[in-house]
Amino acid sequence: MASEGVASPLQGKGPTTTDQNTCCCNPKRHYKEFKNQLYAQEFSDLDVLFVLFAVATFIADIGTDLGLALTYFTEAEYWWFALTLSFILLPSLVLQLFSLRWLCQDRKPTARKSQTWLSWIARCTLHFLQLGTVVRCLEALRIGQRSRTSRDHALRSCYYQAWVAEWTDICLLRMFEAFLESAPQLVLQLYIMQVKGEADRQTVISCCISITSLASSLISYHRSLRDALPNAKVMNYTGVTLWFLWRLLTVSARILAIAVFAHQFTWWTFVGLGSHFLLMFVWLIFQKTKFYGGERRAEEVGFDFIIAFLYIFCWLNMKESRSRYRALFYYLVVYAENVTFVGLWYWKILEVGSFYAELVLLWVMFGFLGGIGFMVMYYLLCHPKDIPLYVPPCSAEAKRQGSSLHVDIQDGLDQEEQATKTPCIEDIRQMGNATVPGHKRHVLSLGFAYRWRATEEDNTNVIDASESSM
Fold first, then answer.
1. Sign (positive/negative) of CA torsion 246, 248, 252, 254?
2. Which stretches of sequence are listed as region Disordered (predicted)?
3. Are 137 and 54 in contact, with CB atoms under 8 Å apart?
4. Domain locations in the chain?
5. Which residues make Cβ contacts (< 8 Å) with residue 385, sequence separation at least 6?
6. Tell me: the pLDDT tens digits for 220-263?
């Protein structure tokens, strides 16, 4: 039996609730409990709410956009219908392809071939129906629940690691959906409202839900990185708030600048954004990103192509090293573009007059700078330092050692627990000294460049806990 003195190896070192006052009406105690749930490294009820909210916002975002496209079709506005629908379908196809590719990478061989084929046929069918993200959210809930209900302590740790892996993938996919579908759709609908000279209720609702989807994807992405950190003290509410305001202000100013410029200079917008895309794509190629470990160069180029499109709206750190100069270069380029876009639009709109011209000008110019200010405050005050670098479980090194630090709970359900417990501990022993090629010291950049990883400290803790339970 496990020793009662052994703490959960994946729980953070953050503050614990020691208040002896157990009154159910004590707001301070409830606040502490909520804070511990938000930052504790264990699957909690708050995680369930995050997953359900992710599903709800995803369905609402796609549903309102589809409803808007149908409205354009019934009103014989076929050009707006085609654009709105294409801005839904093309990003969704990209999401499903990435989701399936990552599932193939993470797939673990099993002796039950018939069940394996059936499960993969079901997964491919659901991805073909554009439901891959929703299904993965439901699978993540199932994994997380098992991390709470499994009796064996070491097995709970394995399931929690599997939950972190699945949730990180979901958050990456949601980031794709936000900046490939929600952000372009928001630009398009703002442009249509300017062209039509009116803001009908359905379009406004669609824009509001797109903004909500963007905001929630940023929060979920930030929290997924937090779940992977070995020390719960490295982030707090202040860090979350600063990080969120940084992203929200810079992205909203960028979207607004593009939308108003497109109203007066439609075709020049494609020239400007196309030039920005090519510049970002070449820049990413020269950075030699290693999202796929550097061995799948064709896939890496394809990934850089998608990230270059995301760079139209938002900066994401794609290389494990000091990022201040890359961030400075990106934000200088984007701010110069934003000022040019809104300046030309303002000069043109003064000829016809507009009651909101000054508001847009101020928001684009100073809202963006405010976001940069929050970014500086975040990195000075709240950014975690000296954290061991996380190693992708599907890296080339892991495959050479025959390890895979995840629980495959899709196949082999009858002997699932026995099949996952031993490999989990053995693989952690093998991966204990893994490092990233080309790096002499361990540093963690909270960027977008990596999928799920496990630290050497966490590995040792899991091994010690499993030995204590024997």
1. positive
2. 1-20
3. yes
4. 236-383, 396-468
5. none
6. 877 776 666 555 444 567 777 888 888 889 999 999 999 999 99
